[in-house]
Amino acid sequence: MTLQKIVRWRIPRRVVSIGLVLSATLVGTVLSPLLFVGALVADAVTSWQRRRFVRLVTMILFYLWNETFGLTALLVSWLVAGFGWRTHDRWSYRLLGTVHGRWTSNLLWGIQKFLGANINIVNAGCVEPSPVVIFSRHISFLDAVMPSVLLTRSQWNAPRHILMQELRWEPCIDILGHRTPNHFVDRTAGGKTELEAIRRIGRSAEPNGSLVIFPEGGFRTEKRFARAVERLRRRQPELAERAAGFKHVLPPRPNGSRAILMGAEDVDVVIIAHAGFEKFNSLARIMKNVPLTEPIEVELKRIPRDQIPMQPKAFHEWLLNQYAWIDAFADLHTAGGEARTATIAIDDPSPETDQPAIDVRTTDLTTDSEHSLPA
Question: pTM for this structure?
Answer without folding.
Answer: 0.85
